[in-house]
Amino acid sequence: GAGVSQSPSNKVTEKGKDVELRCDPISGHTALYWYRQSLGQGLEFLIYFQGNSAPDKSGLPSDRFSAERTGGSVSTLTIQRTQQEDSAVYLCASSPTSAGTGELFFGEGSRLTVL
Amino acid sequence: QKEVEQDPGPLSVPEGAIVSLNCTYSNSAFQYFMWYRQYSRKGPELLMYTYSSGNKEDGRFTAQVDKSSKYISLFIRDSQPSDSATYLCAMERGNNRLAFGKGNQVVVIP
Question: Is CB count within 10 Å lower at the N or C end of chain A?
Fold first, then answer.
């Protein structure tokens, strides 16, 4: 497809379980971002990948969160030992460049519910 | 104080009205200012971006940035029911990492 693809679109899990969320960016986009959108909190930056450089993990809320990007393309966000406060929509975005015009192309998100 | 403040209250207007949205921010280093539109259950999409202070117009949409007051605005003229969405202001922190406001849900009533 032409856009950013995320899976699963919905995930319900039990507290304490691990979850993996996948993002397939737009082909040729070198920059990839993960954001979290919680009710009443707006979008919160989590992590940023640019090419083969070390990722900027400054937004990850705890060490239970990690992400990787394989081959400069697909990315996986992993949340270990999920907590109820992790319930949110996790949005992935890509950009052809990290030059700061602020134009990100977002996927439709993965809605995570932790029971 | 959060970096970006956007009063998240919903806004209902009749079709054809002008919609006025605004955000304030605290970081004077911000140079790029964006407005994103998000339809229900969709990801945000870039509506407009402005570099530094000034106005930018695109059809029915006008974005204004006043860096001296750390204040940005979005105006939607002749609002349409299809404009019903959540509007998020955002500012670029470097490397396209964005700081977002909480968003305003706008409903345009036919």
Answer: N
